[in-house]
Design goal:
Shape: globular
Radius of gyration: 16 Å
Helix content: 25-40%
Strand content: 15-25%
Strand order of the largest sheet: 1-2-3-4-5
Structural class: alpha+beta
Largest sheet: 5 strands, antiparallel
Length: 157
């Protein structure tokens, strides 16, 4: 099944690869919060050997996480409506991760900007380039909104 964010995550994966980070894995899915409200998610895994990230700092690697939430449960502590990027340290070789933290990339950041955000994280510096959106951000946002409307209709059935 093709999900609304598949083309975006593919573009980010390709940009990371071109930049020499060589992601070990990536997946997209639609998940749910507390079993009630769905959201879109993508996870990109970077391992120390293949990606060039510092093995002493991240012995098991790290993950980049993109999510698009409906905002339905925002009052209950779930994320607000829309997209976000986060990262987390992998704490073992089985994919368990530590505390998630915000990545400096905006939710619809261009793939090049996501790469620059990762570089800033790895190099322990502030983001040095102006934020830029993916050229298909409007299309992705509309697809996310359409997906959310369809999920709401399903929930109401």
């Amino acid at each position: 099944m093709t999900l609304p964010h598949d083309p975006y995550i593919t573009a980010v994966f390709d940009a990371l690869t071109l930049a020499g980070f060589n992601p070990a894995d990536a997946f997209t899915d639609d998940s749910d919060t507390s079993g009630s409200h769905c959201f879109l998610r993508a996870v990109i895994t970077l391992e120390p050997d293949a990606s060039g990230i510092e093995p002493r700092r991240w012995p098991h690697g790290l993950i980049l996480i993109w999510e698009w939430h409906t905002g339905i449960e925002a009052a209950d502590g779930e994320p607000e409506r829309g997209p976000s990027w986060e990262w987390a340290r992998l704490v073992d070789s089985h994919g368990q991760c530590g505390e998630r933290e915000a990545l400096t990339a905006v939710g619809y950041a261009s793939p090049a900007y996501v790469v620059e955000s990762l570089r800033a994280l790895i190099e322990r510096r502030n983001q040095s380039t102006p934020a830029e959106l993916w050229e298909r951000a409007t299309e992705l946002d509309a697809a996310g909104e359409g997906w959310a409307a369809a999920e709401a209709r399903k929930a109401g059935e």
